[in-house]
Amino acid sequence: MTKDSRNRGGYVQQVRENTRQYIDSLLGEIEQLQDRVSTVERERDYLHEKLDQASSEIVKKKTERDELSCELEKEREQNAEHHAMIEEQNNNLANLYVASYGLHGNLATHDILCTIKEIVTNLVGSEELAIFELCDEDNELKLIDSIGVDTDELRTLSLGQGFIGHAMKTGMPCVPNQEPGIKALPHEEKLTACIPLMVSDVARGAIAIFGLLQQKTELADLDFELFDLLGSQAANALYTAQLHERFSEN
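RESULT FIELD:
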């Protein structure tokens, strides 16, 4: 083997060794990069997990906030309704007090009849009513005052039939749509309610209400309280005023 051959063989060997070392170096760097990639992927997965947890927590908090807002809104509405109910009750009590005072603050029959008409018009909400008193001799009702009704048709009414007769017989307010078993008489076709005027548990007259104002569609709880007040307080006020006027005449 010549010297040149030996030199070429050593050179090739050296190149191979250098190539092997370079490859080993590259493999080492690749392995390090793979380790870094694995680390980054683990960190990415960890961050994704944390992000998912944070997103879930945000959704949970938002849901809780929405539920709390809904509960607060419901509570606010309930408080507003409660406040409105209290205001309505106070207003109703004030109206009942004013109505009661108006009935007992006069000793003139004419003034009491005007007060009754004002109560029905302003508080019940009707401008069609008739006020009757019982005529014992003829056992019939005689019209003594009215608003917006046909006085000729209602001048005198026989007892014992219809809704008005039923109210006089039972001594209880009669509302036609709550008394399906009673047949309306011709003059009762538009009757909304009839309130008997009770003195010592005896019906001495009646208030017949025909129709309601356009803006009022039905009777309310306050109306029935007013009916009770009119049935007792108005009756006693009228009876007292009539007695007072008779004694004054004598």
